[in-house]
Write a structure and sequence with these properties.
- By secondary structure, the chain is α+β, with helices and mostly antiparallel strands.
- It has six helices and seven strands, in the order H-H-E-H-E-H-E-H-E-E-E-E-H.
- The chain has helices spanning about 5-10, 25-35, 55-60, 100-115, 130-135, 180-185, and strands spanning about 45-50, 85-90, 120-125, 140-150, 155-160, 170, 175-180.
- The protein has a four-stranded antiparallel sheet, sandwiched between helices. It has a three-stranded mixed sheet with strand order 5-7-6, with no helix packed on it.
- Helix 2 (about 25-35) packs across helix 4.
- Bound molecules: flavin mononucleotide.
Amino acid sequence: MRFSELALKTRSIRRFKQSVRLKKENILAFVDSARFAPNAANLQLLRFSVVISKNDCEKIFPALKWAGYLEEWTGPENGERPSAYIVINAPEEEKPYTKMDVGIAAAYLVLSAREAGYGSCIIMSFDCGIIAEAVNTPEDYRPQLVIALGVAGEEVILETAHKDIRYWRDELGKHHVPKLRLFEILTKQKHIQEDQNDQF
Ligand SMILES: Cc1cc2nc3c(=O)[nH]c(=O)nc-3n(C[C@H](O)[C@H](O)[C@H](O)COP(=O)(O)O)c2cc1C
């Protein structure tokens, strides 16, 4: 898959085919990709916890908060929950670059998962105590992001954002994600003209 297609197809997935388990080798391959991610001063301070057993997944799930914009939805039902997780841990004593490193590593993880055919969702709203205990986060480290993983059980539709950037679900339950147009995310520069075809 070309990178442009991979980027389009790497959407946040929140409903999975829970019964399809991920193999340890797959998840380790995603972490192996994140190993090569750029990071400040090449310090390589992040530590990754891999969660694959049903039992451990059950410990993680209650700590997560899903889809803030979907107020009526309390998160994936039993049967559509993630079947694996990767927790990104960073040193408790945060530096200005810590969250940047975490974000870049997360991007590598979700792109790598999508390339292998798996859906994912980056989650930053979670109960840190529950996650740290469940994955045994190293001393002096803190969980920064949880990456939920599994085989996608939902369709996500990208659309051009008009006024509202909030994702939403239609009557068939399909998840829609409005994205700004290219011209809207570029700063105003004389040599760049608006392209009217710049839509989905
Ligand atoms: C740093 C970060 C934190 C996020 N935290 C959450 C979260 O706590 N819960 C959740 O359901 N989604 C979370 N998301 C997913 C975003 O809601 C999602 O990326 C956004 O709606 C755009 O959808 P897309 O990923 O399909 O483009 C997070 C994404 C990022 C990058």
